[in-house]
Amino acid sequence: ALEALGTPEGPGLQWKNLTLRLKAESLIRIANADAAKEAIKALEQIADASSDPVVLAIRGQAYLNEGLMDEASKISQELLSSHPDLAESHALEGFIHYSQKNYEQAERSFLNAIERKAENAEYHHYLGLTYWFMSHETKTDKGKALTEFLKAAKLDGYLGSVFRYLGNYYREIAEDKSRALGCYKKAFELDETDEESGAAAVGLSMELGDMETALSILNGVTEKASPGTAKWAWLHRGLYYLRSDQPTKAVADLQAAVRADPKDFSCWEALGEAYQSRGSYLTALKSFRKASELNPELMYSIYKTAEVEQILGNYENAIATYQQILKKMEDYVPALKGLGECYFMLAKSALKNYFDRK
Questions:
Q1: Can you list the alpha helix ranges (DSSP code H) found in 117-155?
Q2: Which single residue of 86, 155, 200, 205 could bond 184 by disulfide (Cβ 3.0 to 4.6 Å)?
Q3: Any stretches that span the bilayer, and where are they (predicted)?
């Protein structure tokens, strides 16, 4: 649209200003620092931007997304003193309080914004989020968080994050998994970059025994994924293949997950499991060692390292690793069992070599 408008005059200039504003609002919804910088650049091109309080409020949001709290607060204070009846003035103040976890002040600001513009879905959404994080009472109170999320969803059926929090409410508070699954699926359909909703939809589908839905979501994501992306989908599908005794497919998917995030110890651990299931013990050993390097507190990966050493017949190495685990957790049953088995195997090999008293 901006390309088509070029450098207009007269009525065309109004269209250009509106398009720039919409571009900035879209970038702010992406909610990261790079998008916020681009939003500020778009706002700077709007003619007479400094005299438009709504554009100023959008600029304040962009500063907030970029982490420039002082600039955002300055705009908020200016707007509240010069335009106290404007919903956007109170909403910006609410966004600032919400980002600082000042939930009681945020509640007041969003209620003031809703009083002036009741049909704005975003204000209801953020008031719902404020209640969600404010306290356990406001989170579980049907008249607080749930009511605001439902109002936001009714006002704007395309706000994916509202459906994600409705899913969270039905799963955590109402304990209605079927309804929660419906909300997560809707959130993910609206925004395929929403990994949290996608992962929750897959997890709940598996819990409810609906493997077809889980796999269709995962297949859809992995088919479109470029190399080094969609870690959560590769990981979930890899774990599904691992559980359903398809280790070769599990290895392929978990390798893709590791490529997407080489520093995620859980991906390395799962990859080690897949290699072990496939009988690739040396590569399994490397994967478990990598996982325990990334997270030295991860007892399970250290245990699996010892277990694979034991399978390979390297009993002395396995014993040393089991003892390392038992120094930290003396009642870790798998390590005690493995240690006993290793001593027994060493005793058997001693007898075989006629070292009877060993």
A1: 121-134, 136-140, 147-155
A2: 200
A3: none
Q: Are 317 and 285 in contact (CB under 8 A)?
A: no
pLDDT of residue 47: 81
In a domain, 302, yes or no: yes
Q: What is the mean pLDDT of residues 81-99?
A: 96
Q: 307: domain CATH number? A: 1.25.40
Check: CB of residue 260 under 8 Å from CB of residue 229.
yes
Distance (Å, rounded) from C-alpha 221 to C-alpha 14? Answer: 40
User: What is residue 225's predicted lDDT score, i.e. its pLDDT?
Assistant: 87
Q: Is residue 347 part of a domain?
A: yes
pLDDT tens digits, one per residue of 246-282: 999 999 999 999 999 999 999 999 999 999 999 999 9
Q: Which domain holds residue 345?
A: 297-357
Domain assignment present for residue 186? The answer is no
Residue 230, SS3? coil
- Give the pLDDT score at 7: 83
Q: How many CA atoms lie within 13 A of 93 on its CB side?
A: 24
Query: How far apart are the C-alpha atoms of 14 and 249, rounded to whole Å?
Result: 56
Residue 336 lies in a domain: yes
